[in-house]
Design a protein that fits this description.
The chain has 4 helices and 10 strands; from the N terminus they run ααββαββαββββββ. By secondary structure, the chain is of the alpha+beta class.
Length: 199
Amino acid sequence: MRAYEKEHDWNEFYADKSRRLFNEAWQSCWHDHLEDGLPMYSHWGRIDDLGFEPPHELAPEVSRDNTPIKETMYRQTDATMDAERNEWARAQFGYEVCQCNYHVQPPGGIVFLHTDLHGPLSRLIKSENIRGSTLLKRCYVVNLTDWHPGQAWMMHDQSYQGWRKGDVMSLPWYVPHSTVNSHNTESAHRLVITGFIKA
């Protein structure tokens, strides 16, 4: 059995304040993923009916201090896990529980390479006594604007570009990823959704 086929309990990851369990798990999954030559992402499909209002202020601690231009975002918090966009995402993708962030990446915006532990989602499944199996974890990116040259997601030796409004990309929970917008004038708008689908 490959590491990415094994079941892990997300609650155990979040309870471990050292992050050792999380780091060991995603690194093992990532190692086997690379060894098996699997794609970094996949095209899930398209969604045509998208009418979400963009955020207008910076959420705290979204961008690192050395980011050239800060990102604007409706960031999911513990108090907003029942927001309308979450209800939409649960119905659209079959989640039992999820968090749905609205990102706006302006020209010059960078999100550095990382893997996500998703604090609000982790706290919610703990409080609701939901066992967060990694085999049920799904991560989707819903593009709310058309792609422009200079905009990209980067995952190892592959990049995701050329999307149209409504295109949906998915990636495994353990794949390190980064994003950039080096277009001169156009921002990239997207929903970044992660959670646990119904068993």
